Amino acid sequence: MRPDRRIRMHLVSGPFRMLEGEWLLTPIGDGGCRAELTMRFAFKNPLMAMLLEQKFAEIAASLVNAFVARARSLP
Hints:
The chain has one helix and three strands, in the order E-E-E-H. By secondary structure, the chain is α+β, with helices and mostly antiparallel strands. It has a three-stranded antiparallel β-sheet with strand order 1-2-3, covered by helices on one side.
């Protein structure tokens, strides 16, 4: 973790064979920042992967939108 700029995540337990991600916050003008989320994942179970992989990718993408909406709602 790099204070105020980067948060790295990795799997502790769950239905994934591999799960890692990184939030990167890059300062931009007027006191704002650009928020980026990069994630890599693989399910343990091939059937689960086939059924849920696309949906999980969509959920991961929606995390950035939720982050931005919450940040904009704060003073």
